[in-house]
Please model this.
Amino acid sequence: MKLRARGPRISIAAVPMADVALTLFAIVVCAGMFSAVRGVGVRFETTESGERPVPVVWVRVLADGTARVDGERVSPSAVAETVRRRLDAEPSLRCVVHIVPEATYQTAIDALARLTEGPNAVALAVGARLSIPTQREVEAFVAAAGYDPFESGTR
Model:
């Protein structure tokens, strides 16, 4: 038995479909990158949710290298000792460190090194007592709370 051709063979070009698929994939990847949250996730508990707020030591590192610990100015060499003393006094305390945008990268690294290294180090492990919020998170907290805890200390 001889098979007959039924007419012109229809084919779908695969190359243009692959181009469309790769283009869509690239768009999804780029959109995912720009929508991702940057920085360390920090959640500030509020009393509205029924949870008890976590007590916090607020540390703001200033552009000149000095810091404000709960609103009082502290020299760069005494920051870690001051924070460690307060954390040891109350085991449930957490430390939130905000580095002002005007500070240089070296100032930020030096401040974090003083807090995380040496005899007065604050742990950076999972479940640690140290948080470093982004500028956006700090601004959102200040707007929601109605005050700046880094300037006035705990309220």
About this structure: The radius of gyration is 27 Å. The chain has five helices and five strands. The beta strands are 56-61, 67-69, 72-74, 94-99, 130-131. Helices lie at 14-35, 79-89, 105-116, 135-145, 149-152.
